[in-house]
Amino acid sequence: MAKKQKRPSVKALQQACSVTPESARADLDAGRFREATAGFKALLKSAPAGEDRESLRDGLAHAYAGRARQLGAKGMHKEALVMWENRAALGALPAHPDHAVCLLRLGRVAQVMPMLEDRSLKADPGSGALLLGHLAAQMLAGTAGIAEALPAEDPIRVQATVAEEALDAYCVGNDQALAQALKAIPFRSPYRDLVQILKALSRLDPAARDHRGDWTEEARSEAAKLLDRIDDDSGFARLRDAARLALLSEIELAPKLREAGPATRDLVFSLRGWPAERAVLWNELQTLGDSPQPKELLRLMFRHRRVLGETWVHERGLRLLLPKPQTGAKWWIEVGGKPLRKIDGYLLDAWESEADPDPWKVVTYWQDYADLLLAAAEHRVEPGSETALRIALVRRRAETLFQVLQRMEPDSDPESLPGTIAAELESSLEYDPDDRATYLGLIAYYLRGGKALKDARRILKRAQERWPTDKAVLTAAMDTAIAGGAFKKAATIAADILAVDPINSGVRERLVEAHLAHARKNLKDQRPDLAMRALALAEDWSRTERTRERLDLVRGLAELLAFDPQGEARLQAVAESLGKGLAARLILLLEADACGIPGARLLKQLGLTKAPTPDVVDLRAFFSRVRAHLDTGAKLPSEVGGTLKAPLKQTARLKLDQGEMESICETLRRTDLHDVRLAFAEAALKRWRGEPVFELHAFEARHHGVVPWNIPMREMLRLEQALERARDNGDSRLVHRIIEILSGPSLPFGGPPRGGFGGGFIEDEWDDEDEDEDIDDAFDDGGMAGRSIALLADMIRTLGPSGFRSMMQMPGPIGESMRAMEREIGKEALDVLINALAADLDARDLPFADPGDFNPGPSPSTRKRARAKRKRR
Amino acid sequence: MTDPFLILGVPLDADDAAIEAAYLAGLRRASPERDPAGFEALRGAYEKIRTRRDRLAYALFDQTPPTAADILAKAAPLSDPRRPKRATLTALLRGEV
Description:
The complex is a heterodimer.
Chain A: H1 10-18, H2 21-29, H3 33-46, H4 51-73, H5 77-89, H6 97-105, H7 109-116, H8 119-123, H9 125-140, H10 146-149, H11 155-158, H12 160-172, H13 175-183, H14 192-202, H15 217-227, H16 237-247, H17 250-259, H18 262-271, H19 276-286, H20 294-303, H21 305-308, H22 310-319, H23 325-334, H24 342-353, H25 359-376, H26 386-402, H27 404-407, H28 417-431, H29 436-447, H30 453-466, H31 471-483, H32 487-500, H33 505-524, H34 528-541, H35 545-561, H36 566-577, H37 582-594, H38 599-605, H39 616-631, H40 638-650, H41 658-669, H42 674-687, H43 692-702, H44 713-729, H45 732-743, H46 775-781, H47 789-807, H48 812-825, H49 827-839, H50 862-871
Helix pairs in contact in A: 2-3, 2-4, 3-4, 4-5, 5-6, 6-7, 6-9, 12-13, 12-14, 14-15, 15-16, 16-18, 24-25, 25-26, 26-28, 28-29, 29-30, 29-31, 30-31, 31-32, 31-33, 32-33, 33-34, 33-35, 34-35, 35-36, 37-38, 37-39, 37-40, 40-42, 41-42, 41-43, 42-43, 43-44, 43-45, 44-45, 47-49, 48-49
Chain B: H1 4-8, H2 16-29, H3 36-49, H4 52-61, H5 68-75, H6 86-94
């Protein structure tokens, strides 16, 4: 049946009409060969004979060649050959080497041979050599008819034997024979590219691999250099490309391997030592796509559980259920898993809890996990056994994640977060008594704040029983002695440590500190004579400028107290060296305070009562000293702060950059100098109007200790605006801080009616339902967002139970929300609650108690634990 | 690869000595000077499972999901490089991919 003539489309006709030699040339230059071909053909049809026609034919020939190369690169050799033939049909054009290559690829050797005689190819040594290279490669590939078509003395025929020998020697691993064969191939041989490839491949031996199975940099770079010598149009380019792929690292390889054909993959798998099973599994993994879905990956793992190992598949597979284990657990069985055990569920819950920044959640879920381990062992766990170690590690988990004990001081409430974590750590030592770090962490925690010395000594005793000569334990013993005022004992321990570790500067520093502390204590007891003795001991160990300065200060104070005239001169000299400004005053006042000497009197005696002239350098030195002091864990004594408050406020007008002002405000946040912080924040706001971080500092400083319902609404709105600006700036840390302030320790009963606390934009996880019937739950059922019992307690303390009850009659939102609460939980429950809170009030839970402290959040009430457990599947 | 046991090439029940030996052997192939990234990976893996406590902590707390590379390494670890078959080279010379 005659084929129906296809009519050109309207679009094609339009294109033909609009084509110009320039546009066709532009298509050609841009590699749009199909368009260029169509363009030149259309132009040739209408072009008159002459020079223009020659040029158009030349353009068409280039377009055919370009398209042929494109098709050849895709392995479409037959289609490419049509293009070459079209090009040849244009007539009077020299033979193109790539045309011959294409014929060779299709095994049409007989058609290639006449081309070798083409005058233009012979005249171009590059093209000729290229074609010979292709013939050589095809000769080795076993393409029939090449040898027969070539003269007996042709290098392709002559050197084929030795090239074959080289290939065979390489494949069987006979490197000696390989070297000999390669040597026998002349430099200008058509097989020269093969020589480079085989040399490169022979570099890739087992010794050239690293632990990941990748080639060492040296081997990789040597091989790459050899492969780079081969041109892209060489007859050996395919082999070169496959070898290049094998050089990639395992990570680089994966995506490239997907695009490679079977021959390339075979070469790569062999060179990289991939066992056959790995290749099969790799193929299977490829069907899952670039980023396999956890469910599909798990299905594959279960399918191959025999080779992967049942334990490994189970343990690693559980990780694929995260971050939503409850959803994942549903398809665990669907994809071939055995039913999850109870312990798996607990483990998944504990992992999930770690995604939450709430330490209580982590403590609770890991406690449950440890309890289950213990119950499974019927509470008979040998210390040091695997189960015991697991329990110990789990009990330490919250501290490992949150370092609560590293930041907080012990308090008397065993239900507090640090109290609970300390108890967990102590419990962990029952199961794993050999973990020195836990002892040391607990000792450091109990020493902080100086209120739990007994606990520190208790833990220290246990540690010393295990490691009597350990340096870290000895150092902890020294710290404990210093904290207990046993300076002589501390000095003895320090000397013991330094005897075995003379370059231990930390201990040396601590020893000097111990003597200094002793001297200060003596000065407080009005015993300058004893203080001088302690100072003499300290001097023996002092090595740094900073400690010498402090020794000088204490010595000066001791002399002053002993009515020695040298004292005043010594202190004057120290003040002079510090610039007689705020920094000098701070150092003098801190030391005087530590020695029990009234700072104001000291400054008067030294003639330093007049406020110093504000100075940027002095101010920087001052805050550097304040930070160093606060970093030791000490607070700025109120007398020191009181004396320096006024001159400090004056320095707020100094021109510092924004970063410095921010840093100063942050430092002041750690002190009680709220007025000064406010002065700096306001000065900063004058220069950087509305800057959210300074708005936050100004707000906190202005309303420090003020109960939230006494804060004017305009102030709350201003802070909310700062929050929006911080969000716009992308400052997530600041956003978080402002939200903490706005939502945080909270208003009772839902807060003001609009804006400020309880603003709709703040989500509160406490806002969910709860079915518990304890007192705490009365708050939850009332829908009280982010409230704090402590704050409620504070209201009761301020107003008294009866005054508090009378507030319920008040008009406005607070009275209304209290009445709503009464309606919801009943008058009786509210009375029980009020009486309970009135009997157990704690000022520490006031809002803005200490902004520098870590906020442990609500306590682990039975409600929270019960809620956590209810969530469990 | 994320699994430290696979990175070090040790079984799940390897003890301290076996893990240290694998680390030292790995160091010979990935020294910090010659292969900083390889060294980092090796060091990281070693630190994760160096002691019994570390290994238990890894089993309890590490939440990293397995990767395709982990699965491959676990099912069929790399063996020594092999020389390719002559037929593979012939196919590539013929122009196959």
